[in-house]
What we know:
It is a single chain. This protein has helices spanning about 1-15, 110-125, 150-160, 170-175, 210-225; strands at about 60, 80, 85-90, 95-105, 130-135, 165, 185, 185-190, 200-205. With about 230 residues, the protein is an alpha/beta fold.
Amino acid sequence: MKRILSALLAAFLLASCAPAPGGGAKEPDSSSLPESTISAAPGLLAQEDGKLNPGCRSELDYQLIPLREDGPDDFSRFVAQDTAGNEVNESVLEGRLTLFHLWASYCGTEVEDMRVLGELAAKYTGEGLQVIGVPMDAVDPYGEPVENAGALVSDIQKLSGSSDLQLFPSQDLISIKLKDVTTVPTVFFVGEDGKVLSEQDYTGPRGEAEWEAIIKAELERYRLAQHS
């Protein structure tokens, strides 16, 4: 277990300490990460004896499976739970352009991705941007949370300094979009009407400058859609 935890921290810290465009990256504080963090980590994290993919653009080991045929087809109607067990629905999208960040705990770059996206969300919150994270390997293929998934997500957020809302993949989210996702990280943008606004999914890690350029372009698309 200590070997797995060491691999996790090493990969996260290497990714988080890499210099980002426009300045040095902030070093995360790993002192708050308990040794029990991955005692019952999601199945993908436990594969290959805990070895991580530090440059992660990785294929998911399994796709998430919708269990009903009458599930919603866009984000205008959904229910999911956050990592504290609170129910969240489509009202969270009101008045916002939402960047959905689909990630997995075994990707070594996710701490840095989470940090950068969180800082950009804070920078552009006045223009209507918010970030919602979705830990794809925190559930089994049918959307049932694995043991201690909430604690794992919380600890990874502490490393990144991010406070963005994190939603477990629910059956609604799986029916709408997640069933088609095969790669992490994946980012897409959703308007306040629940429609996917971005013309493409953005897969793989990116630097801060590239993420900011993408966000600016999607915010402009969002503004144009509001006035069309």
